[in-house]
# Entry
Amino acid sequence: MKPLLLPLLFALVASVTAVSTQAQEIRGDALAGGQKNAMCIGCHGILGYHASFPEVHHVPKISGQNAKYIVSALTAYKKGERKHPTMRGIADALSEQDIADLAAYYSSNGVDYNSVPLAKAEGGSDKARELVARAGCVSCHGDSFSKPVDQAYPKIAGQYSDYLYVALKAYKTTGKEMIGRGNPVMGGVAKQFSNEELQVIADYVGSLPGELKTIQQNRFR
# Structure
C-alpha cells in the first residue's frame, strides 16, 4: 500500500467507528427503569429524606430531571469523577443499560406534560441576582433554571437549597478521597465565590418554582 494512502485509510476507519458508536447509543426504557430502582428509592423515594455525608442535607429531587444529565451524573460517580462513597457503590453496580433505563424512568416520573413552561426566573435579593449573573448560570441552565440549553445540564430551579450548597462546594474541593466533583466548568464557576456567596446562590435557586420532584414511594407511606 502506498504511504500516502495510509492517512486516508486511518481517517476512514475513524469515521466509520464514530458513526458506528453513535448508532449504538444506548436507549433507556422507563418501564425497565421502574423495575431497577430498588437502590434509589431508599433515599430518593422518601419525601424530606436527609443524607448525613459530607454534611446533613436533603437528598436531591430527581423525578423530572433531564435523562441525559442523570446518565452523565451516574457515569461520573461510576468513574470516580464525582466522589461520594454511597453513590459510587451504587453506580459501580449498574451497567450502561441500567443507567439509561433509570434515567428514562426518573426523567418521566411524575412529569405533567400539560404544564405551562416556566418563565424567566425572577425575585430574589439584589445580592442573589448579582451573584447569579456573575456566575453566568443562565448560559447553561436557561433563563428559568428549568430549561437548560443542553439536556446534559441539570434543571436546578426548586432543587433543595441545602443540596445545591453541598454540590457547589464539592466543585471547589480537590485532593479529597471521598469528597469532590471533577467538572472543570462548574469547578471554575464555584471557585470564584466564597462559601457564603454560594449559600446565597443556592438559597435563591432553590426558592424558584421548578419541575423537580420527590415522588413518595408507596412502600414507604
In short: Residues 1-23 have pLDDT under 50 and may be disordered. The chain has one domain: 26-211. The chain is about 50% helix and 5% strand.
